[in-house]
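User: I'm putting together notes for a lab meeting next week and I want to include a structural view of one of the chains we've been expressing. I don't have a solved structure, so I'd like a prediction I can at least talk through. The sequence is below, exactly as it appears in our construct file.
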Amino acid sequence: MVPQPRPSRTLEDLSGLGARLTWVSGLILAISSFTDWYVGSGPGPTTSVIGWHTGALGKLVFFIGLAVLALVILREAGIELPATVPESLVIIALGALSTIFVLIRLISVPDEFFGWGGRGIGIFISLIASLLVIVAGLLRAGEEL
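Assistant: Thanks for the context. Below is the predicted structure for the 145-residue chain, given as structure tokens.
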């Protein structure tokens, strides 16, 4: 018997990828505000600071993740944005805004955490999730055409 070749994937097979990536990246972005952004060790055990406690930017990253999730939930409920405001553009803008906020916290450590040794994995998860929100918005823009 000769093995049959597998059929190649077409663009129609990837049609729902943008919607799935939007809610997954929005959920990860919202949850990442409660992961460690800064870690440090002293005479005691190693401690960490979650993104929520880093000031207004950590909280804004959480609420941007919730806003992305709200857009997905509203669309699934049948409520859409006006035609003059494409949903993909709003998602790209939210992703860009959260990327800027995370990059600010990645580069500029707040003064109260200055003596801490380094960045935790949570801030990098937030950065990747922010970039994935932008990618999801771009995929949705491709689906809208």
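A couple of points you could mention at the meeting. Helices lie at 17-32, 56-76, 87-107, 121-144. Residues 121-144 form the longest helix (24 residues).

User: Perfect, that's what I needed.
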